[in-house]
Specification:
The protein is mostly helical and 150 residues long. The protein has helices at 7-23, 29-36, 40-52, 97-104, 143-149, and strands at residues 56-57, 67-68.
Length: 150
């Protein structure tokens, strides 16, 4: 069955669905605008189109009133604007000198050699010559310590 919406409309539907799941309410036009980085008239036109195609419903004059009229399983995966859908692209096999070095690099918690640039466990990594100093913050007092002082 062919989808009844365009790719961009599918992204608006996916955003509305994800937002509703995360925050327990439908997104306001401002939330949609901030996510997609478009103008208010663009958002309003898209929502009007989605209402006309009966993909969503809205209550005129009420904020956060977007309700999806399609099954959640039919909604496409949300892709952040400006990024391609990495999951749908074929990933070439790893090859080349850099990839070989990455694959041979020691894993976290594994043995380290003397020339390793990885920090020891529990220590922050600061590149040599960066001019940055690592400053450790004092531990915050716990309830037990404050009770002993009293």
């Amino acid at each position: 069955m062919a989808e009844a919406w365009t790719e961009k409309q599918g992204q608006y539907l996916a955003f509305s669905d994800n937002y509703s799941v995360m925050f327990g309410q439908a997104p306001a036009e401002g939330d949609v605008q901030r996510f997609f980085g478009t103008s208010v008239p663009t958002i309003q036109q898209m929502l009007k189109t989605l209402v006309e195609t009966q993909l969503i419903s809205r209550v005129p004059g009420k904020a956060c009133s977007i309700a999806l009229l399609i099954e959640p399983e039919a909604i496409p995966r949300l892709v952040r604007p400006g990024r391609s859908n990495v999951l749908s692209q074929r990933v070439p096999p790893r090859s080349g000198r850099l990839a070989d070095q990455i694959m041979k690099a020691p894993r976290e918690g594994g043995p380290r050699d003397a020339n390793s640039t990885s920090p020891a466990p529990g220590r922050p990594f600061v590149p040599s010559g960066s001019g940055r100093q690592v400053v450790k913050c004092p531990a915050a007092p716990t309830r037990m310590a404050s009770a002993r002082a009293a």
